[in-house]
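TL;DR need structure tokens for one chain.
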Amino acid sequence: MKCAAAVLSLIEVKCAVGARADLGRPKASPKENRDIFMEYLRD
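>> reply
TL;DR here they are.
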């Protein structure tokens, strides 16, 4: 999706403090997650 002008957006994510005991470690780095998310938004 191409826009004629730049548009500012805000994505707010609310998170709870703490984690489940069976929660594993991330397999992707924060930069990889950002890149994947940015690509998803472009499509």
